[in-house]
Automatic annotation (TrEMBL):
A molecular-function term among this protein's GO annotations: transition metal ion binding
InterPro entries: DtxR_MntR_Metal-Reg (IPR050536), Fe-transptr_FeoA-like (IPR007167), Fe_dep_repressor (IPR001367), Fe_dep_repressor_sf (IPR036421), HTH_DTXR (IPR022687), Iron_dep_repressor (IPR022689), Transcriptional_repressor_C (IPR008988), WH-like_DNA-bd_sf (IPR036388)
Name of the protein: Transcriptional regulator MntR
HTH dtxR-type domain mapped to chain residues: 1-74
Length: 231
């Protein structure tokens, strides 16, 4: 990604598609099915197909799409997706650290603003914050060059044994879950002890040195990423 960028000529909808494909494709940039994309965006499958065909046929294609093989970002699409993601996570951090927004409100606010900020505004936010590497949810903030810290954490739902872990990040997509996380002290850097797990019912956990245990549904647990705790 070049240091000086072109003005944004993409619509909000296009940006949202690119960001969703980036998220669903993971670090390996796997192909993403139309069904997964429709579920993620809450959009009808026919609309997904139309948009992907449009993005693939653009003068500078933003995706590589085949109906029965799914979609992945082109290099141009990846650059734009990472740029929007950088905007989003910088804005979240600015709202949280400078403007004292509640943790459960910053995602929606950043969703509205991420498409429109200028490069100069982005640079000033980053400088004001001291060029942070992670946002308040623990997610890596892409650099201007589109580089991100490798993700080495696992989901709580992937934990196979009881024990103590360090919370690496929490999902920012569900405001209700974020309020539950905040109320229970679930935040990046905190220690989480898995006391009981059930693939159906969910998980019984505690935070830090507290002996007070509480339950998390499997759905909520799927929004928590963990790192092993050094012994």
């Amino acid at each position: 990604m070049s240091a000086r960028r072109q003005a944004n000529r993409n619509s909000e909808s296009v940006d949202n598609y690119l960001k969703a494909i980036l998220a669903l494709g993971g670090p390996e940039h796997r192909r993403v099915t139309s069904t997964a994309l429709a579920d993620h965006l809450g959009v009808a499958p026919a609309s997904i197909t139309n948009m992907l065909q449009k993005l693939a046929a653009a003068q500078t294609p933003l995706v590589e799409y085949e109906r029965h093989r799914g979609v992945q970002l082109s290099e141009a699409g990846k650059r734009r997706a990472l740029e929007v993601l950088r905007h989003h996570r910088l804005i979240e951090t600015f709202l949280y650290e400078i403007l004292d927004y509640p943790i459960d409100e910053i995602h929606e606010e950043a969703e509205r603003l991420e498409h429109f900020i200028s490069e100069r505004f982005e640079e000033r936010i980053a400088a004001k914050l001291g060029h942070p590497r992670i946002d308040p949810h623990g997610h890596s903030i892409p650099t201007m060059e589109g580089e991100m810290t490798p993700e080495n954490s696992i989901l709580l739902t992937e934990v196979e044994q009881d024990g103590v872990f360090i919370i690496d990040s929490v999902s920012d997509r569900d405001a209700h879950a974020l309020r539950q996380f905040k109320a229970n002290g679930i935040k990046p850097g905190a220690h989480l002890r898995v006391r009981k797990r059930s693939s159906v019912e969910g998980y019984t956990v505690s935070i830090g040195r507290s002996s007070t245990a509480f339950d998390l549904s499997r759905e909520v647990a799927g929004g928590i990423r963990l790192l092993p705790c050094a012994k």
